[in-house]
TrEMBL record:
Lineage, uppermost ranks: Eukaryota, Viridiplantae, Streptophyta, Embryophyta, Tracheophyta
UniProt keyword annotations, A-Z: Membrane, Transmembrane, Transmembrane helix
Name under which the protein is recorded: Sterol 24-C-methyltransferase
Domain Methyltransferase type: 114-195
Record-level Gene Ontology MF annotations: S-adenosylmethionine-dependent methyltransferase activity
One GO BP annotation of this record: alkaloid metabolic process
Membrane-spanning residues: 12-30
The organism's place on the tree of life at top rank: Eukaryota
Organism in which the protein naturally occurs: Olea europaea subsp. europaea
Transmembrane is among the record's keywords: yes
Amino acid sequence: MKESCIKPFVSKYFFASLLLSISFLLYLSYRSSLDSTIISVVDPTPSSAEPGLKIRPGYTSYDSYVQRQLNKTLNPKLRKIWTTRDWNRKILVFSGFFNDLKKKNLLFNSSKALCIGARMGQEVEALRRVGVSDSIGIDLVPSPPLVMKGDFHHQPFDDETFDFEFSNVFDHALYPEKFVDEIQRTLKPGGVCVLHVALSRRSDKYSANDLFSVEPLKKLFKRSKLVRVRTVDGFGLDTE
């Protein structure tokens, strides 16, 4: 562990926090450059060969998938809840997670950070409050100044932009491989990724995939190394 960490410019590391019945950290070790080509024509019926990761059927096109995600993000009742009742509560919980990462030297005040699928930006605000001031979020619907518009299947950033990336919306990825590849592409050497996931068949009705074990997710991070898995309690997610 210490030996790996003292060579940040040789290997890339990711810290994946999966919020499910078990949580784990990924330190992803990059051994070759990633293909940054984005497929513009998307197979409307994606599938997964991994038994522990299932893509939900029913999407006739990528546009239909995006529209379903927008139905949640633009729901006025949900947006009101996210900015009122849930706002401070979520910031408090996220701040606790991020402070824990700082104590373990996986996140620093100097880190350039990205929150993926950040909606209204509670996790971005939490990062800023714990001292990580250079933080931004992306979502299909922007929420300035914390969240800019961006599709996590095709992040609007150059290669090796961020030191730290966080997400708790892996289940919303129609193309999990592309979701992970974009994280690996935009993380700097020595970068850390933390994912919070739910290892359950009872996930969000807007989810595009169901994850039943940690193994399929580990396999997606082909150029990375798993650091740890731990159980967490985060808004219905249980694994980091």
